[in-house]
Write a structure and sequence with these properties.
heterodimer, A: alpha/beta, Rossmann fold, seven-stranded parallel β-sheet, three-stranded antiparallel β-sheet, 7 helices, B: alpha+beta, Butyryl-Coa Dehydrogenase, subunit A, domain 1, Butyryl-CoA Dehydrogenase, subunit A, domain 2, Butyryl-CoA Dehydrogenase, subunit A, domain 3, 3 domains, four-stranded antiparallel β-sheet, 10 strands, 51% helix, 16% strand, globular
């Protein structure tokens, strides 16, 4: 039977650009070009590898890539489709502007249920919000097990297994389907789309949904429905010149004193 | 009716993908390979994985279903960062795989193209000889058909052959004299010689001024025997075949030269913004600004020139003159931009660790390879109806 994989991806401002907040203290999406979050590319890659390994065993898998975001977020979907995902779902609604983690996870959960799934694959965090908790909250909302922050993932006999590398130990985790996994940036470099993939992506279906399609009340999402709020945002101060220690025999001691003073050692 | 010089969305996406690849994968590693004159197998493998070697070929042979324009876009983006990997791709596709795709039998295409398209195998084209470069009709290498064994017996030497001696080189297509035409001129044919064929030896790599992470060698054939079925296309069509291959190749080299010229702008603008002299960034000086404005103008114009030639090729229109114009102009401005980029970088520009030093070394060959600037002018003048 075909394994239904949903990969959640986010369209984020290019981290190499000059990223700013808008006046309402949400992400200014006009200031910088957007792209598929690099951390979500790892999720797409792992989903593709799972699908490929199943194909080698004569099984099948269908990958749906899902995003919640403005019109331009279609670019992120197109990139994932170019890499090899089969179809895409785009949830777009003006009422979603300013949605926080809880609201986002609600929309994702409803959309994932709408698509149907055995396995949800997420990146470890977004490169803009960087909270890193959406996969866990999503699993709770879907009432399914979660295998988060794994650097190695595999699928076998109706379950997903993964290795989570911590500071003190590596844990081997597994969960029966349906389940949510999130993969780290150590899970393996994402592939570059080929021209064939880019051309094929043009013909792949992209389903557009709004909040009413998912039966979500607009009051539960957006800035007004958010559980968290940004009260203030200040630009990072300009970097000042460092301290130069001239070694006149006592350089080592001076460096150590500098580090002690700032409690590094 | 719309007149639009912008790229269609999928070509722009390809361009961006290769730009990202060049920046993330090629740029951090290529300096090391270049310095040690090593062939960058790991980078070439990645290029193969993303389908660059199959760009202009149909999917039935393992290609990407793209076209020559797509190949040129990829070449320009690679050359913005490094010309060695760009020329490896250019030669692998335009000289290695394209002759087989264009002129090969079904069996030859089936045998060779899937591996060449995936980048697992590289092909080379042996045309130039120690005593014949631009005058390609002066080929001395001979191939005699041994009727008894049904084999071609090849004798001769080829030089400056790109991709001919790597660990993954699978074949060299060589041009050889196979007889005399009624008017006494040599009859030239192309023959596929698999790497490792007895009698076919590959010399150690040349020590070159530039393109130091690419593979260029001299080849020797001494009673080298290959089956008669290895003839590529029709007997005696070798001259027409390589003229077609060279015409196309000029557009590819033009795209590559444009990339190098743009790379010079990229590096120099970044340097001019950060390098301080006399209390301000050097980019605040008009002398530097004007250099950079001219360099950008060169790269932009060269890009329009190769894209025009490539789109004519795509539409089946004559493109000989436009290809020659593009090749001549872009190679000239590549040399100019490289010289100016080095100048803007001052002493650092003379240090090999700076990309512009690599650009400087890599630029000169562009005025020589795939038809010298003099040959391009000859072709353009001929297209203008002028005869010697």
């Amino acid at each position: 039977m075909s394994l239904r994989i949903v990969v959640c991806v986010k369209y984020v401002p290019d981290a190499t650009g000059d990223r700013r907040f808008a006046e309402d203290l949400t992400t200014d999406r006009d200031a910088v070009d957007g792209l598929l979050s690099e951390l979500d590319e790892y999720a797409v890659e792992q989903a593709l590898q799972i699908a490929e390994s199943r194909q080698q065993e004569g099984d099948d898998a269908e990958i749906t890539v899902l995003t919640v975001g403005p019109e331009d977020a279609k670019d992120a979907l197109r990139k994932a489709l170019s890499m090899g995902a089969h179809k895409a779902v785009h949830v777009e609604d003006d009422a979603l502007h300013g949605t926080d983690i809880l609201g986002t996870s609600l929309v994702l959960a409803k959309a994932i249920e709408h698509v149907g799934y055995d396995l949800v694959v997420c990146g470890m965090a977004s490169t803009d919000g960087t909270a890193g908790v959406v996969p866990a909250i999503l699993a709770e909302r879907l009432s399914v097990p979660q295998v988060t922050l794994v650097s190695e993932v595999a699928v076998e006999d109706g379950k997903v297994t993964g290795r989570r590398d911590g500071d003190a130990a590596s844990e081997q985790l597994e969960a029966r389907f349906p389940a949510v996994v999130s993969v780290t940036d150590q899970s393996g470099e994402a592939r570059y789309p080929s021209f064939k993939g880019i051309m094929a992506a043009k013909k792949k279906p992209v389903e557009s949904l709004d909040l009413s399609d998912l039966g979500i009340d607009a009051a539960e999402v957006g800035l007004a429905g958010a559980w968290s709020a940004v009260n203030e945002a200040n630009e990072r101060p300009v970097r000042t010149a460092g301290t130069i220690v001239k070694d006149e025999g006592e350089g080592g001691k001076q460096l150590a004193a500098f580090l002690v003073e700032r409690k590094f050692i | 009716m719309t007149i639009d010089h912008r790229l269609p969305a999928e070509y722009e996406e390809l361009r961006r993908t290769v730009e990202e690849f060049a920046h993330d994968v090629v740029a951090p590693k290529i300096g090391e390979f270049y310095e040690h004159h090593e062939f960058p197998y790991e980078i070439v493998r990645e290029m193969g994985r993303m389908g660059l070697f199959g760009l202009p070929f149909p999917e039935e042979y393992g290609g990407m279903g793209g076209d020559y324009f797509a190949l040129c876009l990829a070449l320009e983006e690679l050359a913005r960062v490094d010309s060695s990997v760009a020329i490896t791709l250019e030669a692998g596709v335009s000289l290695g795989a394209m002759p087989i795709f264009r002129f090969g039998t079904q069996a030859q295409k089936r045998d060779w193209l899937p591996k060449l398209c995936s980048g697992e195998m590289l092909g080379a084209f042996g045309l130039t000889e120690p005593e014949c470069g631009s005058d390609a009709g002066g080929t001395r290498t001979t191939a005699r058909l041994d009727e008894e064994s049904g084999e071609w017996v090849i004798n001769g030497t080829k030089c400056f052959i790109t991709n001919s001696g790597t660990d993954i080189t699978g074949l060299v297509t060589v041009t050889a004299v196979t007889g005399r035409q009624p008017d006494g001129r040599p009859e030239i044919s192309s023959i596929i010689v698999p790497s490792g064929t007895p009698g076919f030896t590959v010399a150690p790599p040349y020590s070159k001024v530039g393109w130091n992470a690419s593979d260029t060698r001299e080849l020797a054939f001494s009673d080298c025997r290959v089956p008669s079925a290895n003839l590529l296309g029709e007997l005696g069509r070798g001259y027409a075949q390589f003229l077609r291959i060279l015409d196309e190749g000029r557009i590819a080299i033009s795209a590559l030269a444009t990339g190098l010229a743009q790379g010079c702008v990229d590096e120099s603008v970044a340097y001019a913004k950060t390098r301080q002299a006399f209390g301000k960034p050097i980019g605040a000086n008009q002398a530097i600004q004007f250099k950079l404005a001219d360099m950008e103008m060169h790269a932009h114009t060269a890009r329009l020139a190769w894209r025009d030639a490539a789109s004519r090729l795509l539409h089946g229109e004559p493109f000989k003159k436009e290809a020659a114009l593009a090749k001549l102009y872009s190679s000239q401005i590549a040399v100019t931009n490289a010289r100016e980029a080095t100048q803007i970088h001052g002493g650092y520009g003379f240090m090999n660790e700076y990309p512009v030093a690599r650009f400087w070394r890599d630029s000169k060959i562009l005025e020589i390879g795939e038809g010298t600037s003099e040959v391009q002018r000859m072709l353009i003048a001929r297209e203008l109806g002028l005869t010697a």
